[in-house]
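Hi Y.,

Following your request, here is the sequence exactly as I used it, all 279 residues.
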Amino acid sequence: ESAALYEELTSARDSERADRLQEGLLSLLAQLNEAASNAGDGSERFASQLAAASRRLTPAMDAEAITVLVGELGRYTESMRQSTAELVARVRDSQAEVALLKSQLNDAHSTALLDPLTRINNRRGFDLAIANLQRSDPGALDAGTLLMADVDHFKRINDSYGHLIGDRVIEAVAQVLVRTTKATDILLRFGGEEFALLLPRTATAGGVAVAEQIRAAVGRVRIVRTGSGEPLGGITISLGVAGAIAGETMSAWIERADRALYRSKQTGRNRVTTWVPSD
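Below is the corresponding structure, written out as tokens. Let me know if you'd prefer a different format.
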């Protein structure tokens, strides 16, 4: 329920951010269009003025009339120069605005795909990474392994030490997971204290080895309360491991790994359990 609420709030913030970016872009385009339109109007007017001057210029024209015509042409030219200069200046100024909008867009894109606390994939980012992997390396998942991990007694940690310490625990575990993964692995904060790690082209035995490495590394994490220096004590993590089954959906795969994780919780925590068909 809390994970669903988090996704709903995150989606709402992403939508608001997208609306603001769209408004900024539309405003910029409108300003550039106005400047270009003004320059275009000036260009058409200048062309008309030149044509009229050309028609007035005849061999019978005296020096005084020519002087008047040259003065008019000078004013026409200066007006056109100013109109063009305004467009050039507006385009130049817009470059900075475009750069800012691009930066904001990149930030919005990143925020939409990452968990704000740990900066690893949220479910949306996880699904996108899987889709990209399937396009770039078809078959990578067919030989892969999925790990589900859950911090042991996390509610007790929050109740005993507060949510700020709980956040530090989540961050510390996320850092262990990041250090353990390879570039091709796909990591997800599934919600709350639960994580998922997809290991493409990794057999189940290899997934178990990675899970044990994560479990041991988390066991070495030590967190001390700021101010009092009180140690939090040992942090442990339980993991479930499930190898791929051909043709299976990602939801079914996650469910199998989650059942193996639940078995680890049932049998004492701080352990790795592999899914077997009897589960």
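The two ends are 25 Å apart (CA to CA).

Thanks again,
Q.
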